[in-house]
Amino acid sequence: MPHLADALSLARWLTGNADDAEDVVQEACLKAHAGIATYAGGNARAWLLAIVRNASYSWLARNRPRSIVAVGNLADLDEVAAPRETDADSPEAALIAKADTAAVATAIARLPQAFREVLVLRDINGLSYREISAMLDVPLGTVMSRLSRARGLLMSELGDKR
Amino acid sequence: MSNDSGLPTNPADLRLLLHALVDGELDAATSLALERRIASDPALAAEHARITASQAAVRSLRRPEVSEGFRARIAAIGTPDKTQALPARSRRPLARAAIHRFGSFDWRAMAASILVTAVLASGATQWVMLSGAPDSFAVAIASGHRRSLLATSPVDVVSSDRHTVKPWLDARIGVSPPAPDLAKDGFALLGGRIEVIGDKPMPALVYRHREHLITLVAAPQETGGASAPVATDLSAGGFSLVHWSDGAFSYWAISDTERPELENFVGRFQAAAAAG
Question: Of chain B residues 135-154, which have a CB less than 8 A from chain A?
Answer without folding.
Answer: none
